[in-house]
Design goal:
By secondary structure, chain A is of the alpha+beta class. Chain A contains 4 helices and 5 strands; from the N terminus they run βααββααββ. Chain B is 43% helix and 28% strand. Chain B is globular and about 30 Å long. Chain B has one domain: Transcription Regulator spoIIAA (2-Layer Sandwich), CATH 3.30.750. Classes of the chains: A alpha+beta, B alpha/beta.
Chain lengths: 152, 120
């Protein structure tokens, strides 16, 4: 148990889990709770949880190629303006530029099923960035917090 | 408790699929398997009743997209009914509502096939 208060910019929560799809339900539930705690309504919180689920799924499939013995770290931050979620892995470098833009009609015609996750993340979040830092992939998902109601 | 249960039943030439729970990368094989079973039985008129579906990630949407060409190529269709607000919202975000026919009720989805006669 920590004895010092959270410093500015420090994650409110770190979630580290094995690279198994069976943990994706936990990721979804924790992400939804964290988003609700940050002030998002239930509907928006569910969509944010989906975006985090998609980012974690990408890690399992593309960075770790289905290996179940690696670790995924998710960090949740709330700086008062933005709700930020970092999804980190130590797998293969993943370049989001490799992910083709989604054209749904073309998808249906070509029987393609991949790439939808990145597309969804971009539609749900205000900002999605990918970077390589200290040998790790970091997918950063940012959602602007709802404007607070005027103080009564 | 399992994250997803999928039941299937037949009403004449129409296959009704009932996913209950959460479809994500962990559970999608179960959902995909039920669609594939219908196709293997040459049943190409499918209604996915989403009344019990709490959540669908891109893996589930991909399962639908991966089957739709074969379904429509055989004169059938995959139609959806009773989406809750969360699931409907995800469909709309991706524009799936323009690619798939979505009905408020299962009965309306079934009737939409019947109105088309034998060639869906």
């Amino acid at each position: 148990m920590r004895s010092a208060p959270l410093r500015s910019g420090e994650p409110r929560l770190r979630l580290v889990f094995p690279s198994e799809t069976s943990f994706l339900g936990l990721v979804r539930d924790v992400s939804r709770k964290m988003a609700e705690g940050a002030g998002f309504d239930a509907s928006t919180a569910s969509r944010i949880a989906l975006a985090v689920d998609e980012a974690a799924t990408n890690v399992l499939e593309h960075a770790y190629h289905g290996a179940p013995d690696r670790l995924v770290e998710i960090r949740y931050r709330d700086d008062g303006l933005d709700f930020e979620v970092d999804v980190c892995d130590a797998g293969d470098r993943v370049d989001p530029r490799d992910v083709p833009k989604v054209d749904l009609r073309q998808y249906a015609n070509e029987r393609r099923t991949g790439g939808l996750g990145v597309h969804l993340m971009g539609k749900i979040m205000d900002r999605v960035t990918f970077r390589r830092s200290r040998g790790r992939n970091v997918c950063c998902l940012v959602k602007r917090r709802p404007t607070p109601m005027a103080a009564s | 408790m399992s994250e997803l249960l999928v039941e299937t039943r037949q009403v004449e030439e129409i296959t009704l699929i009932y996913p209950r729970g959460y479809i994500n990368a962990h559970t999608v094989r179960l959902f995909e398997g039920e669609i594939q079973k219908a196709l293997q039985q040459n049943r190409f008129k499918i209604v996915v009743n989403c009344a019990g579906l709490a959540y669908i990630a891109s893996a589930g949407l991909g399962a639908i997209m991966g089957a739709i060409e074969e379904i429509r190529g055989n004169g059938g269709d995959l139609r959806l009914s009773e989406l809750n607000e969360t699931v409907r919202n995800i469909f709309e975000i991706l524009g799936f509502n323009h690619l798939y026919r979505i009905f408020p009720s299962e009965v309306e989805a079934i009737m939409s096939f019947r109105g088309e006669g034998t060639a869906a």
